[in-house]
Amino acid sequence: MALPDLTQFKIIDLEHIREVGMPEYSTHKPLFDYEIVHRHEDTDKKVQGTRTSAWGNYSGNEHSGTHMDAYCHQAENGMMHGGLTVTEETETTSGFTVNGAENLPVVLAPAILLDIAALKGVESLEPHYRVTTEDIEDCCSKDGLTIDPGSVVLVNLGYARYWHDNDRYLSCPGVSATASQMIADKKVLAVGADNFGWDEPTDFDEELNCNGPGHVLLIVRAGIYIFENLNLQALVSSGHKEFIFFASPLKIKGGTGSPVRPLALVANS
Hints:
Radius of gyration: 20 Å
Number of strands: 17
Shape: globular
Oligomer: single chain
Strand order of the largest sheet: 1-17-15-7-9-11-14-4-16
CATH architecture of the largest domain: 3-Layer(bba) Sandwich
Mean pLDDT: 96
Number of helices: 7
Number of domains: 2
CATH topology of the largest domain: Glucose Oxidase, domain 1
């Protein structure tokens, strides 16, 4: 079998470093933590000789850091994607029995970057700005992009730069309900943005009667995956708007989401 020439591609990492104190939504408890619990000096030298060991424990919410939402993460009027209901049988203390993170796919798909910040001529959008359908149409027209079925659409809001500024990062812009519906109508595989929740955090949609309307439109109704807390700075700097997107979630049985290591494979020009 002839393998592809991988020297033609460059890999751009789209994950933020996971660290204590990184921005996290207030309801996502417990917050991320890491602690060394076995130190090199704790090693039994009678057993291991000159070799010593250290290891630690990490804990936190599935939606801490760069991650991917599972279908069970969201419901509308008690109904999850696929017409499955939230009940005591499907939602247990040890995880969901349906739509759990163990069912999340490895994503390998063509992708585009909608650089809305650049469209507006700024490094980052104003806090609480809501990306419109016109913004998306103008961005596609400006950069010669199309939103194709089965593709991944990433939206640059310019907020990865505020990863170490908790208040500013959590006062982020996001994608409006109408823009989310427009993307959902294209039957994409997944979307993602460089904020903590795709939607603008104060957005309450009167028609849907909920906040976070993109989560209902994309995950619950359309079965489209959402990636959050992406680090898009290096991708933006590369100038690439079209690329191959790869992400591999952990198989957390019954989980509502999973940490991921997303990558962009771009042409090595």
